[in-house]
TrEMBL record:
Region (Disordered): 221-246
Family according to the record: Belongs to the SMC family. SbcC subfamily.
Leader peptide range in chain numbering: none
Annotated Gene3D superfamilies: P-loop containing nucleotide triphosphate hydrolases
Name the record gives this protein: Nuclease SbcCD subunit C
Coiled coil: 477-504, 650-721
Domain called Rad50/SbcC-type AAA: residue spans: 5-211
């Protein structure tokens, strides 16, 4: 992977847009990203991570991405052009941020956005081919293109600040977590856990299968010998058979405890055979008892059948006697039914004659009443129906045209009031229209007054902007003055520490010189101590040593020299750190004083007060301008509303006047029509009511006259038809016919009596004539009680025998079912044990159980191999950086000698000079940095190979170089130069000034007085 170009806008301390062409910087292979602490060096690395992964991760908060120094309307974004084996791409991302609302005041939240393009090349200036503009889809596409996840990326491309030593000095448990995340070995943990769970389930399955065998054996034992002695009447089992059964049952539980499959099957077959024999004996006894019961039942049925025939013949003879006694009453009922049948057709005619007579009488009475009522309307002389109908038609015709006018007459007073109210309303509307016209005439003068006042505030916005800029500048000056005042104390303290560190360094240097002098002065005594008689001297070669030198009291040993060297190196390191700190705070103080313009805090506060007052005044002018502008807009809008209302009012007045004129005209016309219609009456309503009364009386009289004529004709016709029917059926008069008629219930009762007598007589005659009754002599008497007792005894014997056979059959079925269940359970146990065996063996190996000779789990074993690869890759670089002095070693113990619970992930440093191991915590600051850097680079190499051998064309190393002495820094820079072999670009992130002399190509970040930062590229 190679990064070509980075563009940021409104990100972190960078309010503007800055583009860094990393491809141009990478021409030399090594470039520097430098600037003061906190100026934004790490922000540029965060921007790269954010562009690729949409988040900067746990090392930094996503909230820091949006710049606080940018104008509210500027959209923050990061744009990155990069290439991988999949091609060249440009990704654009904007983080979630607040922006001003497009309408109205206030802010709203703008969600994160992302876009991705495929480019023809890294120098392609065209937009490229769009891939996606959806945040989720862009993330998915980048995961496929980059291959590395964010954790791997920050371990291979961006080596983060302060993370080298953290991994070197981490506890084995924490180091395990890092390695597991980077290499993705959690799959082996999940596999290990899954195997342990499978082993637990396998053991549970085998145990469950065994329990099922035990349960099935118990069930077979209960089925085979669950009862006590044989039931009475069934007969006891032979003693040998009973003893054999009990022995088989006792052996079942013993065989199930193992379980012994072959023995269990044989015992099950033995128990089933015993119960099958018992079932055959009980079935034979049941069949014999069933034959005896069948014979007794046949004798009982024969006795009961004879007794039944005798009782039936006695009942028929008694019924024959009752029929002879009822014969006279039945004959009388037959006669009455015949007379009623002949009179039945005359019944409706009798009812019809009665209705005709009643109708004639009602019609005559109604005619008299109608004549009396008609006399009050001048109709008393009308006796003929034609004259009555003529009077009715005349009254109805007149009412037809008079009734609508009556309705109109009733509404005339309300219409007159409505006309008066409409006239008053029209007058009031005319006055309101005049008032609106006066308002319209007065509005231009009021508008001119608002426009004149608004002109005085036209430049309020520009005045407020100038005041805001002046206020921000005053704030910046005050902050710079305050920071400068606070930094002066830091400069004094840093100067004191620097002077003390210089004195300490000079002291340790003098002490080292003194120790070396003593070591050289005592070297003769040290060599003399090693002389042996007869062996040549290492200096002169003589074999005789007459006067060897003697060791003095001030002689210094090698250990003293090494201790003095370490003390001097530590003092030099502290001096370098103190010098760097003093340079930094001094530079910062100069920048702050320059930003403050030499002003004191008091003067800056006074200037800020004046700027704030001017800003408040300008803000008030802007608010007043907005108020006046709003009032002018409201005035114009109100003027438009008033003009619209005036036009609408005038149109409404014209329409109202026209409607009033039409109402007055129609009212006069209807009053004239009603006056003509009422004539000599008081009103049209009164005349119409009189005509309605005359019409009702005429209609009633006409209807009554017609009804009288119709009723008389119907009465005569009904009487004639009745006489004719009486003659036909042979009855003398209507009274005789009425007497012959029977009510329906009485006729039905008589008919039922006759029918039942006839049916009973037929039944008795047929029953006495049957052969089985006619042949009885009356002397045979059956003994039913004795037959029932004999059958009961036989039935009892059969019940006992059947119960015994049923019980034996049930027990036989139960033993067969239990035996089948036992056989199935035994087979299931064998299969479960066979399936569980490889799972248990595999789980034991993966979880460091039985059979695992190295006592290491699968996940730990995989991490050990990866960790050994990392240590080997780190030692390749550490040999160069430490000049062959140090090498890393993996150990099973914790650093410091304590045994680790997770064996194998401990680290120690092998000092090749002293041949002694060291705890990583004992390394100096510079040693810790380059050893940790080698470890991180080794981890990066292994991660790269684990990710499919991805070529990483760009690498960033963030901070840590200030702790190195010149010699070590040369070695580290040499190793970093190796990283750029093959076209790789290495970016070094540091604020150490010495790095500028070593690396000419650099990206410089400078902080402005406002607190914002700018970026410049130097080559």
């Amino acid at each position: 992977m190679r990064i070509h170009r980075l563009t940021v806008q409104a990100i972190g301390p960078f309010p503007g847009r800055h583009t860094i062409d990393l491809e141009e910087l990478a021409a030399g292979g090594l470039f520097l990203l430098e600037g003061p602490t906190g100026a934004g060096k790490s922000t540029l690395l965060d921007a790269i991570v954010f562009a690729l992964y949409g988040t900067v991760g746990a090392e930094s908060s996503d909230d820091r991405l949006h710049s606080d120094h940018a104008d509210p309307g500027v959209e923050p974004f990061v744009e990155l052009v990069f290439s991988t084996g999949a091609g060249t791409f440009r990704v654009w991302r904007s983080p979630k941020h607040e922006r001003p609302k497009r309408r109205g005041d206030g802010v709203t939240v703008q969600n994160a956005r992302a876009k991705l393009w495929r480019l023809a090349g890294d120098s392609d200036v065209t937009p490229g081919v769009p891939v996606s503009a959806h945040v989720q889809e862009v993330g998915d596409e980048l995961a496929r293109i980059v291959v590395l996840d964010r954790a791997q990326f920050t371990q291979t491309v961006v080596l983060p600040q302060g993370q080298f030593a953290a991994f070197l000095r981490a506890r084995p448990e924490d180091r395990r977590s890092v390695l597991q995340e980077v290499f993705g070995t959690e799959i082996y943990d999940r596999l290990q856990q899954r195997l342990a769970e499978m082993a637990r389930q396998a053991r549970e399955t085998v145990h469950t299968a065994h329990q099922e065998v035990v349960s099935a054996a118990d069930a077979l034992a209960r089925a085979a010998h669950g009862g006590e002695d044989p039931a009475p009447g069934r007969g006891a089992a032979p003693a040998a058979e009973e003893q054999t059964g009990r022995a088989a049952v006792a052996s079942l539980r013993e065989a199930a405890a193992v379980p012994d499959g072959d023995r269990l099957r044989k015992l099950a077959e033995q128990v089933c055979e015993l119960w099958a024999d018992r079932e055959r004996r009980d079935v034979e006894r049941r069949d014999a008892c069933a034959a005896a019961e069948s014979a007794a039942r046949a004798l009982l049925d024969s006795a009961r059948e004879l007794a039944s025939r005798l009782a039936r013949r006695a009942d028929l003879e008694a019924a024959e006697h009752r029929l002879r006694e009822d014969r006279e009453a039945v004959e009388d009922a037959v006669a009455r039914l015949d007379l009623a049948r002949r009179a039945a057709p005359i019944g409706p005619l009798l009812d019809e004659v009665d209705r005709a007579v009643a109708r004639d009488e009602r019609a005559a009475a109604a005619r008299e009443q109608a004549a009396v009522a008609a006399s009050g309307h001048g109709l008393e002389d009308l006796t003929e129906p034609e004259a009555v109908r003529a009077a009715l038609e005349e009254a109805t015709t007149t009412l037809g045209w008079l009734e609508p006018l009556a309705t109109i007459e009733e509404a005339l007073p309300a219409r007159a009031r409505a006309v008066r109210e409409a006239r008053a309303e029209a007058d009031a509307a005319t006055r309101r229209t005049a008032e609106l016209a006066a308002q319209v005439d007065a509005r231009p003068a009021a508008r001119q007054a608002l426009v004149s006042e608004l002109d005085r505030y036209r430049d309020a916005g520009s005045r407020r902007e100038r005041a805001r800029v002046a206020q921000e500048q005053a704030y910046a000056v005050l902050r710079a003055a305050q920071d400068a005042e606070a930094t002066e104390a830091e400069v004094t303290a840093a100067k004191q520490r620097l002077e003390q560190a210089a004195r300490d360094a000079r002291g340790t240097l003098d002490a080292e010189h003194e120790v070396r002098r003593r070591w050289v002065a005592g070297m003769a005594g040290a060599l003399a101590a090693e002389l042996e008689p007869g062996r040549p001297c290492a200096v002169c070669g003589a074999t005789e040593h007459p006067d060897p030198a003697r060791a003095t009291d001030e002689h210094a040993a090698d250990e003293d020299v090494a201790a003095a060297e370490r003390a001097r190196a530590e003092a030099d390191g502290l001096l370098t750190e103190a010098r760097s700190t003093h340079t930094e705070v001094t530079t910062r103080l100069a920048g702050l004083r320059q930003a403050a313009g030499g002003a004191s805090v008091a003067a800056a506060e006074e200037a800020l007060d004046r700027a704030e007052a001017a800003f408040r005044e300008a803000e008030a002018a802007v608010i007043r301008h907005a108020e006046l502008d709003h009032r002018l807009a409201e005035h114009d809008a109100e003027t438009g509303h008033v003009v619209e209302r005036l036009g609408a009012a005038r149109a409404a007045d014209a329409a109202r006047a026209e409607r009033l004129e039409a109402q007055v005209r129609r009212l006069a016309e209807d009053e004239e029509r009603c006056a003509e219609a009422r004539g000599e009456h008081a009103s049209v309503v009164e005349r119409a009511e009189r005509l309605r009364g005359r019409a009702r009386a005429a209609r009633r009289l006409a209807d009554a006259t017609a009804e009288v004529r119709t009723a008389r004709e119907a009465r005569a016709d009904a009487a004639a038809r009745l006489r004719e029917r009486l003659d036909a059926v042979g009855l003398e008069d209507p009274e005789a016919a009425r007497a012959a008629l029977l009510p329906e219930t009485e006729a039905a009762s008589l008919a039922d009596l006759v029918e039942r007598h006839r049916a009973e007589a037929t039944r008795v005659a047929q029953g006495l004539a049957e052969p089985e009754l006619a042949d009885l002599d009356g002397r045979t008497t059956p003994d039913v009680a004795a037959a029932e007792a004999a059958h009961a005894d036989a039935m009892a014997d059969l019940t006992r025998a059947a119960g015994a056979a049923s019980e034996a059959a049930l027990r036989c079925r139960q033993t067969l079912a239990a035996a089948e269940r036992l056989t199935t359970a035994v087979q299931a146990h064998i299969e479960a044990a066979g399936r569980a065996a490889p799972v248990l063996r595999t789980a034991a190996l993966a979880t460091a159980g039985e059979g695992n000779t190295i006592d290491t789990t699968l996940a730990t074993y995989v991490l050990l191999r990866r960790f050994e690869d990392v240590v080997a890759a780190a030692n390749d670089r550490l040999a160069t950086m430490s000049d062959g002095r140090y090498a890393l070693e993996r150990i099973d113990e914790r650093e410091g000698g304590q045994r680790s619970r997770k064996a194998g992930l401990g680290l120690r440093v092998r000092d090749q000079v002293t041949e002694t191991p060291r705890d990583p915590h004992t390394l100096s600051g510079g040693e810790t940095f380059y050893v940790s850097l080698c470890l991180a680079l080794g981890l990066a190499d292994v991660v790269r190979s684990e990710a499919g051998g991805i070529e990483l064309g760009t690498l960033f190393v963030d901070e840590g170089f200030g702790s190195l002495d010149p010699e070590t820094l040369d070695a580290v820079m040499t190793e970093l130069s190796r990283l750029r072999e093959g076209g790789r670009a290495v970016g070094v992130v540091s604020h150490v000034s010495e790095m500028k002399d070593r690396i000419p190509d650099r990206v410089s970040i400078r902080r402005e007085p406002s607190g914002a930062s700018t970026v410049s590229v130097r080559r």
